[in-house]
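All the exercises in this workshop are built on plain-text protein records. Sequence and backbone structure share a record, each on its own labelled line. The structure tokens are whole numbers drawn from a learned vocabulary of backbone shapes. The record below serves as our worked example for the rest of this section.
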Amino acid sequence: MIAVLVLVITIMMGMLINIYQSQRIVEFGLLQAIGYTKRELLQRVMRETLWVLLLGWSIGLLCSYALLHVADALLMYPHAYALNTLDPIALKYTFPVPLSILIVATLTVFLRFRKFDPVGIVERRLV
């Protein structure tokens, strides 16, 4: 079940990153037209994607910890049930999601930049 969840989230986030990058295609065309290399553009996109992933993963961990702490205080503790809100095994289950999203994002951006033509983009958008 966890593998299916990781797969669905990865596909969804990969599509969102692909949509976001396709909206910035004119920006990338202009940057490459003024001298940026494809490698520099790819590194820029990957840094942005990594920051978004790390920020989202951190916020997700903090929110899940807060919700588990509330559930422990309201539901578990009064009935003498134990709930470890800082379970290291549960934390390990969160690693595949951002890693797989980063892999899919890298592949989609790399494939998009492989056939990237800045002249065609500049001519179509700015003329």
Summary: The chain is about 80% helix and 0% strand.
